[in-house]
Write a structure and sequence with these properties.
Layout (H helix, E strand, L loop, with lengths): L6 H15 L5 H18 L3 H14 L4 H13 L3 H13 L3 H17 L3 H14 L4 H13 L3 H14 L4 H8 L7 E4 L5 E5 L2 E4 L4
Helix pairs in contact: 1-2, 2-3, 2-4, 3-4, 4-5, 5-6, 6-7, 6-8, 7-8, 8-9, 9-10
Length: 208
Amino acid sequence: YLAGQAWQQIAEILPRLIDALAPSAQVGVIVDLYVELGSVYADRLERHDDAIEAYRDALALDPKNVLAQRSLASIYERTGQAEALLETTEAEIDNSPREVQLRRLGDIAAAWHEHQRYDRAADCWQRLIALDPSAVVGHEGLARTLRTSGQWIDLANALRTRVRRDPSTLTELGRVALGGGRPSRLGVGSSGWLLAFSDGRFQRWDGT
């Protein structure tokens, strides 16, 4: 069948082979067969829904399988399934070494923000900060996401945490929180709230 490129027949044989081998074969063998099946569906038969199912079956057995993750992401990209693509890419990053997570989490967070999935964006920014508390891009990204989504209490708490670590960032982060404005003075109120003096009045960063 391979020699004759009989892809439809191969797509029919591989599931039966998987069922026959599953009770005794090593997990890695079954995973490879699912990935091969997904490849046949996606690249030879253009049966994208079946390919997605095959790759998901592979990942159910081996969530860290890079080939299955990337193949699944490729299908989502080809078929315009943006949020599913982000989900899969984020899962791949989660299973990557720390340096890869540091390099790519910000991109995923920004993409979630663009798609107005502010909860997912904030989660990615927070994970980036947890990996590297000094990551300015993470703190600025989190502040921007929380401000855009109107989560003023969470924004105030996030900025207070950042300023406690590095007071020199107060003005810089304050501008992010105020939407790019230029407050003339920043400080901490008696109750612990961050305050910005702008347009002739103090604003508390919970939106009041």
